[in-house]
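Thread title: Can someone regenerate the structure for this chain?

I was given the following input by a collaborator and told the matching structure tokens would be attached. They weren't. Posting the sequence so someone can regenerate them.
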Amino acid sequence: DSSGEEVDLEEVAGSLNDHGFNEEELGFSGAELETAQRVVEALGRNLAAFRSQPFKAMRGALHPLIEEQMKNYDVRGGMKRKRKDADEITSLKEQDKDWINRAGLRAKRLATLEA
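Best answer:
Regenerated them for you:
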């Protein structure tokens, strides 16, 4: 241990449940973990239900976990990404318009020079 105290591995191992975590420390049992996993998996298969009002509190509770996963996988997502994509599309459309305008002006100048 980095604090200088020795860790009694047998004591730590004895405090873990069959799922490998300390129920007293986390405040829930292995059975509750299994139930939570079934719920999350079911909602993952039915995103419309997950987005509905009854699951608003759950979405909020999951938010810190999702943010952590996004950091771990270097995901830059969410609304900021959607906004960036929309801005990028707008910028590309503006560039296309500018190019068309420049091409039209160039064609007029060439026509004037040839006349």
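Residues 78-114 form the longest helix (37 residues).
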